[in-house]
Amino acid sequence: MFLLFLLSILSGEDRSSLIAFHQSFVTLITVLAILVDIHFQTQKSSPVETHPAMILPLIMAAVVYSIVLARINVQPRSSEYLTLCRLAYLGSGILTCDLLVGLLMSPLWWFMVNLCTILIVDILRRWHQPIYQFVCQSRDLLKKKFEAVRLAASKAFSLTRDTEEQQNGGNRLPV
């Protein structure tokens, strides 16, 4: 989802891609908020008491997300303005989801998830061209292998058909 949105930012797609991404963000945030609610119903304390340092940034990120989305829908379109708003929209939406997940997980697991995400994004950022070339080469190799298998199979079936014709005196069997 994150990579699709980055591609839409880079390709300069219109507002419809932003709305589609917004719908998936809202679904994810809603599901995470419901899970946080269910998680803290079984405990005696609220998330405000147990994670006060996460609640304020969570509220701020959700408000920034809403304001940026409203500005994108209301303000006139300019490519520089829209790109900046999309980046703010993406950052605040990801931060909101990240903080909601952080409320559900222990701090160590949350740190590990964030670290892995940062490493994956960094690897993709640095190595996207070689990865793309490797995927294309692998696809071409698989295509050649499937073509070779298809040719071998068609030759094998044509040989068996020729053998059947010879056994039947040169007449083809009705199909």
UniProtKB/TrEMBL annotation:
This protein is called: Transmembrane protein
Magnesium as a keyword of this entry, yes or no, is no
Q: Which UniProt keywords apply?
A: Membrane, Transmembrane, Transmembrane helix
Which residue windows are transmembrane per the record? 25-42, 54-74, 108-124
The scientific name of the source species is Quercus lobata
- Enumerate the PANTHER family for this protein: PROTEIN, PUTATIVE-RELATED
Asked if the Swiss-Prot or TrEMBL record annotates the protein with the keyword Disulfide bond, the reply is: no
Q: Which InterPro entries match?
A: Ca-permeable_cation_channel
